[in-house]
Structures are given as structure tokens and as C-alpha cells.
Amino acid sequence: MKKKIIAAACLSILLVLFSCAVRKPPNYFPVPDSGINKDEDILSVDVSNIIETKNGSTRQIPAWVRSFLSGGIEAVEKLDAYSNKYVFIGINEGKNITALNKWIEFYTVMQDFPMLAASRIEKRMYLTASLYPDDEYGAFYDVMMHTAYNAVYPDAVKEDNYWIKTKSENAEEPSENYKFFVLITIDKILMQSIIRNMMTKTAADVTITTIQNNSVNRLRNTFFEGF
């Protein structure tokens, strides 16, 4: 009996190791000692703590970066240059500038943008749900998110990138950190069409309750309010 238990344990370990070995690599270029942030919420960066930038000036930071640091995505989309577009910003940070430059170099719309798009879609579904979206929308939620993360978003454009170097405000543990930003834009009408098609196909492919169906219909009618 004891030998059987040991054999079973060894087999379990081998299965775990095998599953790790065949796991697909991430879509982004791996950056050691850094953190990729797929969320686009406002960053708490005091401009006075910026000590270095991509163009060498702390006073001539691009308008989209300055707007993002002070007001988030909504502030960027209010700029005249992006009045008819949805703006998405990929963020990465760390201390290794060489690795971060590689991240920017290898960042592609085809592979990396779906994460940003799906993250915003999911956030919208959370905000419209009374409690939890998987309860509110049933199978529609899971299928919709799977589709969003694996979708192709034609005409999304990698417009610009920028980085800043900041110093910490903590006097006891002073440190310096790089923050890299990549700017992606896509036409509003096109993006809305893509998402509407996703929702239409998803609604046709899933079976949900009458209450969940009513919630899905409300979502589809109000989805782009604040998106």
C-alpha cells in the first residue's frame, strides 16, 4: 500500500512538470524584474518626481502621456487628436531599461492589443452587473470574454511609445523606476462594430435563462455608455 502511494505521488509530480513544460509562452516579450499592467486606471505619478524621459526633457512630455498621468484614458480621449478614436495604453515598469526597450520593440497589435481590449470589455461588464457578471449574464459572460481575448482587431494602430523615469517619495527607501507606455488607437465606429458582432454571435451561441437574457439585452443596449 505504501509503495502504491509513493508511486502515485511521483506520477502526480511528473504530470505537473509535464504540463508546465508544454504550457504556451505569454504573448508579451518577457521583461525580468518588472510588472506588466493591463489595467488603464489613473497612475499616481507626480510630474515633479519624473527625473528622466525618453526625449530627455521633463518639461516636454507628449500631451497623451501627460494627460494619462493626470486623468487616465478618459483625459487622453478628450484630446482633439483622438476625438474619433478609442485610446488604449499598455504599461510596463521596472528597473531594467534594456529589457523594457525590448518589450516596446516586440509589442505588436496582433498579439498584445487583444489583452487591452478584452480587459476594458470585461471591466464594462463588471460595472453593468448588479453583483457578478457570470451570475448576471450566465454563459454569455464566459463565452464573450473568451472571444474578446482571442479576437482580431483590424486597423488598431500602435501610434507611439514613451517612457519616464521616476524617483520614489519614500525618503527611507529611495528608488528609481522606469515606466514604459505604448499608445494604441482604433476608430470608434469600427471598434463598436467589432464588439456588437461579438455580442450578437455570443448571444446566438449560448443558452441562458430568461432573467439572464434580459440582463444581456440591457448590456447590449447600454454597453458603450462610458466605454
- What low-confidence regions span 5 or more consecutive residues with pLDDT below 50? 1-38
Terminus-to-terminus distance: 60 Å
What is the helix content? Answer: 40-55%
CA radius of gyration? 22 Å
Number of helices: 8
- Mean pLDDT comes to 83
Report strand order across the widest sheet.
Answer: 1-3-5-4-2
Structural class: alpha+beta
Strand content: 15-25%
What would the principal axes of the Cα set say about the shape?
elongated
Order of H and E elements: HEEHEHHHHEEHH
- Say how many strands there are: 5
Largest sheet: 5 strands, antiparallel
Number of domains: 1
Please write out the topology.
Elements lengths: L1 H21 L11 E4 L12 E4 L9 H15 L7 E10 L2 H10 L2 H20 L4 H4 L2 H11 L7 E11 L8 E12 H18 L4 H13 L5
Antiparallel strand pairs: 1-3, 2-4, 3-5, 4-5
Description of the molecule:
This protein is an alpha+beta fold and 227 residues long. It has one domain (2-222). 49% of the residues lie in helices and 18% in strands. It is built from 8 helices and 5 strands. It has a 5-stranded antiparallel β-sheet, sandwiched between helices. A hairpin with an 8-residue loop joins β4 (157-167) and β5 (176-187). α4 (109-128) packs antiparallel against α6. The longest helix is centred in the first third of the chain and has 21 residues, at 2-22. The N and C termini lie far apart (60 Å).
